[in-house]
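Tutorial, part two.
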Amino acid sequence: MLLGMLMFALNDAMGKWLVASYGLGQVVFVRSLAALLILSPFLWRAGWKPVVEAERPLMQASRVLFSTMEVFCFYYAVMYLPLADVMTYWLAAPIYVAAASPLLLGEKVGWRRWTAIFVGFIGVIITLEPSSAMFTMPAIISIVGTFAFAFMLLSGRSLRSTPDKTLVLFQLAGAGLAGLVFAPSDWTPLTSAPEFALLCLLGVVAMGAHMLVNRALKISDAATVAPLQYTLLLWAIVFGWMFFGDVPRLTMIFGAALIIGSGMFIFFRERQLKKRQLDGPLEVP
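Running the prediction step on this input gives:
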């Protein structure tokens, strides 16, 4: 899980570096194509039946739409904002999931989790630094992207029986198709093989990160490895400083602390309630 988070952070830093020189659609298209090539042997081995007979096509399409929006919003945001700031917004997605789950999934949320959700929203506002800067296009795109990511996670909850490889295939295909549509308008010619290799490496690193995280969740309890996702912010701060000279603001650090704290509380509270449901009520003689 720790290695997976490191690779995700590398992927994000590489993406920020590349979108400064190449078109957004071009980066997303080449990234998705390279990742699909890496994924194809695993799909071939598993067979195409889970893909052809995937459950709930409309929900699958909705997830692809949200995941594609999320990818484009993320890479647009990192073009203009520090990597750690963008990562902080994205780490708030589980808070949005908890807030939307009663309406969209019919899940019951008690006052403790509503309090944590409120604290998390305060953290997002602090990170945004309430001012005219809140209404700049990169900040607005960041918030739209985090909501798209949250709805992608919510739709994933409704598609639990769909294999991970199938979900990733649809996700990559949707992003790649959208990238292909927008790429011609801002395509930058590749003048050397190393540049093309770096664009392809973006997809390879992303696929490696997904595989490591999925493997971690299979061989260990979620309560052990899921909190380690927040090390992503540490790497974002380190890479942002090393490669782009970004120094984290105090408001970002404080807001991130509130977001991480509320996200951790929501995660462990949900696990505690699920454990109680599985154990069932105690029988009183």
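Residues 70 and 179 are 13 Å apart (CA to CA). In part three we will examine how such features are distributed along the chain.
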